[in-house]
Amino acid sequence: MEFKDQVVLVTGSGKGIGKAIATRFVRERASVCINDIVLEDAERTSRELRKLGGKTLVVQADVSKEEEVKKMFRLLFGKFGTIDILVNNAGIGDGLMVEDMTYEIWRKVIDTNLNAVFLCCKAAMPVMQKKRYGKIVNIASVAAKKISFRGGAHYTASKAGLLGFTRHLAYELAPYGINVNAICPGATLTPLLKSRTPHAELKAELGRFPVGKFCEPEDIAEAVLFLCSKRSKMIVGQALDVDAGELLAWTDFESYKKGRKEYAKRVSGKQS
After folding, report:
1. Taking Cα atoms as reference points, which of 108, 104, 173 lies closest to residue 138?
2. Domain of 63: which CATH number?
3. Disulfide engineering: 93 pairs with which of 62, 80, 155, 190, CB 3.0-4.6 Å?
4. DSSP string for residues in 168-202
5. Catalytic residue list contains 155
6. Coil/strand/helix, residue 46
């Protein structure tokens, strides 16, 4: 197996897309660091992966905080000695419109979705540069190429910025044999999405996807595996859309505005 004994760090991998990515690498016999801000989620995922024979390390850390990122990498290097693959997956967002958004909320999303990626890349780069090998995959969003259907302007801005950072870092690291790319998932049926969105609403949204169904976390994981494989060695600084055709269509503004208001209320617990 190509990834046997490689060391992989997946941020935000306690559940959802991150968990699917970590699981895929464990099935390829890689050693995986499970990071999440919620310790219980990370430990649960680790237990499941160890049942598959995986070698894992659990690190609870808020990747938007520099000292916690530094601690995470100290633990990672102490356990595995190196890093081969970094998947920046951790992210947050809500459906607030700008008129309802505070600067504190804006900054928290930017810190988690964009600044955290900078911190993790900075920590991983020296080891990758020294051995002249590495793969970095940043999980962005189709929101980076249009606007977000569920997230607000802070989410859209963070993901658009992430694509810019991906291109620039890819240019700087390519001479060291390090590939940096991004994936732009469309709406993906994570446990979080399903818990926040009534089934009837999800069913009504299927018209936005020419494929006729939502992406699953495993679909994103397969794309990550491809971008980390030898088959993608000449792919540099690109953003791969995995969206069931979502970018091919959109909706009218009134539907957008109504959806934003209703989703924001649901997420904040103002209505069921």
Report:
1. 173
2. 3.40.50.720
3. 155
4. HHHHHHGGGTEEEEEEEE-SB--HHHHHHS-HHHH
5. yes
6. helix
Total residues belonging to the chain: 272
The closest of 73, 76, 85, 42 to 60, measured between CA atoms, is 42
Which phi-psi region, left, alpha or beta, contains residue 171 (left: φ > 0; alpha: ψ -120 to 50)? alpha
Indicate the pTM of the whole model. Answer: 0.90
HSE-CB of 202 using CA atoms within 13 angstroms: 16
Q: Name the active-site residue from 103, 155, 171, 176.
A: 155
Cα–Cα distance measured from residue 234 to residue 231, given in angstroms and rounded to the nearest whole number: 8
Total domains present in the chain: 1
- What type of residue is 114? L
Sign of CA dihedral 236, 158, 74, 86: negative
- What is each CA distance from 196 to 155, 163, 209, 234, 266, in whole angstroms? 17, 27, 20, 39, 7
In a domain, 149, yes or no: yes
For the chain (272 residues), the mean pLDDT of every run of 10, in chain order, is 95 97 98 98 98 97 98 98 98 93 98 98 98 98 90 96 98 98 93 81 82 92 98 98 86 62 70 37
Could you tell me the residue range of the domain that residue 234 belongs to? Answer: 7-267
Residue 272 in any domain: the answer is no
